Amino acid sequence: MRQSKNILKRDLVESEYKPSISAMALIEVRRELEAYTSVVLQSDLAGSSKDQYIDMADRFVRWLAGEFTPGIVKGGRVRFR
Question: Could you tell me which residues are beta bridge partners of residue 8?
């Protein structure tokens, strides 16, 4: 992953790290995710690219909410918490 190289220059956190975000901030982020999803769906991207853009953003928001843990896989599919 080419993007990971830039991110890894920052201090790393433990794999058990849990984000801390206020309920109001999470509401705002979810609202903006809906807007982002709408913009992506209206774009000229290929269908599979749209799916990937939306899926990755959705996973990040779910991680913020404590609903997703990266790297937990069960039966070839990501398992949600």
Answer: none
Ordered by start, the domain boundaries in the chain are 45-81
Q: How far apart are CA 46 and CA 68, in angstroms?
A: 26
CA distance 81 to 66: 8
Tokens of 37: 């999803």
Mean pLDDT per segment of 10 residues, for the chain of length 81 residues?
A: 59 81 97 98 98 97 92 60 45
Rounded-to-5 percentages of helix, strand, coil across the chain: 55, 15, 30
Residue type, 45: L
DSSP labels for 34-66? HHHHHHHHHSS--HHHHHHHHHHHHHHHHHHTT
